[in-house]
Amino acid sequence: MRVPIVAGNWKMYKSAQEAADFITALLPKLTPLEGVERVVCPAYIALPAVSTALQGTPIKVGAQNVHWKTEGAFTSDVSAPMLKGLVEYVIVGHSEVRQYHGDTDARVNERAKAALAHGLKPIIAVGETVDTYRAGGTEAYVGAQIRACFEGIPQEALANIVVAYEPIWAIGTGLTPTVEEANTIIKKAIRDVLAELYGADAAQQMRIQYGGSVKPDNMKAFMQQPDIDGALVGGASLKVDDFVTLVTLAQEAKR
């Protein structure tokens, strides 16, 4: 059985001190919720404080991005060797990075490979625009993203990769696809494409999250879908009780 994974993407919120204070409040509530992998992804500046606060606990830490090079003249960027020891996971391909920083699928592929090469676990995010969704092109679009983002990644690396399906039009808007729509896309455009690339058994073992306006009032329905293995959460992960509720609902749905 695939272990569900709920990751909170804090985006550009919380200073280092605010992040540390948040963890102090979150940890006693989140620790007992076994059977779900729990990840928090603060801004770079807060990673040392959060990593220290969570050392020796079951809560994992992730970064929000990683550069594709080991080092170099890349002002403002952070490489995988710099993150090693601070985080276990790293998000690559989030739609906001694609939109604001021009990341392509090929670049996401490079970032994922860089993470893997240094022992980090990429959460590879994919998802379509509202125009693609309205035109009925979601399945083809997301499937093409998966093929490009996994180009050259060997099958033995799959155990260290999570995929997050985040329809761009649902992120931060309060809008979501129906749970059946989300599950169908995850099954047909992600899991079935991974099966073409790596075989059915490997695809069945992959964990695939849903993301995009995930909240306590819709989490249970998403987690009850057979091909959804967790959530990549934005705004709701910034509130202690909301994040704990999301993890609790994932735990209950996947027992």
Overall description:
The chain is of the alpha/beta class. The chain has one domain: TIM Barrel (Alpha-Beta Barrel), CATH 3.20.20. It is 44% helix and 15% strand. The chain contains eleven helices and eight strands. Strand 7, helix 10 and strand 8 form a beta-alpha-beta unit. The termini are close together. 43% of the residues are buried. The model has no long low-confidence stretch (mean pLDDT 97).
Summary keywords:
11 helices; 255 residues; alpha/beta; single chain; eight-stranded parallel barrel; TIM Barrel
The description of the largest β-sheet is: 8 strands, parallel, barrel
CATH architecture: Alpha-Beta Barrel
Which fold name is given in CATH as the topology? TIM Barrel
Low-confidence stretches: none
Radius of gyration: 17 Å
Question: How many β-strand stretches?
Answer: 8
Secondary-structure element order, N to C: EHEHEHEHHEHHEHHEHEH
Number of domains: 1
**Which strands sit side by side, in order, in the main sheet?**
1-2-3-4-5-6-7-8
The chain-level mean pLDDT equals 97
Please describe the topology of this protein.
Layout: E1 5-9, H1 16-30, E2 37-41, H2 47-54, E3 60-63, H3 80-83, E4 89-92, H4 95-101, H5 105-117, E5 121-126, H6 130-134, H7 138-149, E6 162-165, H8 179-198, H9 200-205, E7 207-211, H10 216-223, E8 230-233, H11 240-253
Parallel strand pairs: 1-2, 1-8, 2-3, 3-4, 4-5, 5-6, 6-7, 7-8
